[in-house]
Amino acid sequence: MDDVIGEALDRLICVEMRYASGVPRGIIHRLYDAARAEAGRPLTTLATELLVKAVKPGDRVLIVTGAGAPPFLPYGETDGPLGAVAIAHALDLALGAKPIFLSEERNLAPIAATAEAAGLSVLAEDMFAARAASAMCVPLLMAPEDWEGQAAALVEQHRPAAVIFVEKGGPNDKGRFHTITGNGRDRTVMASADALADAAGRAGIPTIGIGDGGNEIGFGRVTEAVAEIQEFGRKCRCGCGGGIGTIVRTDVLMVAAISNWAGYALAAGIALATDRPDALHDLGIESDMLAACARAGAVDGLNGRQMRGVDGTTAETQIAVMTMIHNIVSNARRPLRREF
Ligand SMILES: [Zn+2]
Questions:
Q1: CA–centroid distance, residue 19 to ligand 1 (Å)
Q2: Domain boundaries, the chain
Q3: Residue 85 half-sphere exposure, CB side, CA atoms within 13 Å?
Q4: Gap between the Cα atoms of 227 and 322, Å rounded
Q5: Distances from the Cα of 165 to the Cαs of 43, 102, 220, in angstroms?
Q6: Distance 239 CA to ligand 1 centre (A)
Q7: How far does residue 173's CA lie from ligand 1's centre (Å)?
Q8: Coiled-coil stretches, from where to where (predicted)?
């Protein structure tokens, strides 16, 4: 996929449409610009190239997602699972890979429901290993259990070709996790997915981080920009003495207004790079995924309602964004010979 297409996808997924709600606005293009300047090329292109190079048929890929915590987000939110599943769907169809979803136990039911809506059966390991169009769900431990040991064991057990973090919170330099509005949480509330990033890094396994705020794993590539741009970037409200930005880096960082959309852009990139347009899920699957995710307990992360919405945007908007991504893909594959 060339940089022209990556640029178009990057720009489409960075259209911010948050409503005034106390959640910081007018920041996505600034976070994107920082990440883009650091990376030097379109972020969708870089993430696509990483996966197409690293992932071979039969390879396992770990996909970590799941934002929020009880009581307001008891089973997570709708931003994250759909993007994670879009990537898994593309990896399965176009690259013959084996996607494994990881999250706090409380978030796994909506993730599994979303995967099943995309045609990926969620199975136990023996069947998962034997059959295509399947996925596996693994709960991530939280403190005080041995979450660091688990991370190392997961890398050892699955030998993943890549590890991808979608809307997955990472700790700041004080070891605390934060919401975008500056509230802090410790490792008994949020899974330490950063341990998985560290374990992958030690094993030389490539990583991708996707986020829309600066507190998600991957943004460690642009910590100073997050500190500068975000309202609580230098000083949170939990008193830990740090800001909301994470220090956890990945090899590639993708920034989007809504993290799911970066997953869709990456699926589009995979579809183009492999000449498998069906690797980008269709509009029917998009609609079914959102309904299934919400039905299984996920809520809109902005208004907290268990409904077909994502970060304050409607189901129709998800379809509209997907429609445009499909158009970018189809036009990229069908150059037109103009007669005039
Ligand atoms: Zn704090």
A1: 25
A2: 3-333
A3: 32
A4: 32
A5: 15, 9, 13
A6: 5
A7: 10
A8: none
CA of 215 to the centre of ligand 1 (A): 11
Distance of CA 174 from the midpoint of ligand 1 (Å): 8
Q: What residues contact 171, with CB distance under 8 A and at least 6 apart?
A: 177, 187, 192, 194, 246, 247, 248
Q: What residues does the ion ligand 1 have nearby, CB within 5 Å?
A: 176, 184, 236, 238, 240
Record the tokens describing residue 211, joined without a space: 């986020």
d(CA 248, ligand 1 centre) in Å: 16
Instruction: Write out pLDDT tens, residues 324-338.
Output: 999 999 999 988 888
The structure tokens listed for 206 are 């490539």
Q: Can you tell me the distance from the alpha carbon of 137 to that of 112, in angstroms, rounded to the nearest whole number?
A: 7
How many of the other CB atoms lie within 10 Å of CB of 77?
Answer: 26
Q: 3-333 has which CATH code?
A: 3.90.1640.20
* pLDDT tens per residue across span 89-134: 999 999 999 999 999 999 999 999 999 999 999 999 999 999 999 9
Distance 332 CA to ligand 1 centre (A): 45
Q: In Å, how far are 105, 131, 254, 270 from 194, measured between CA atoms?
A: 17, 30, 17, 26
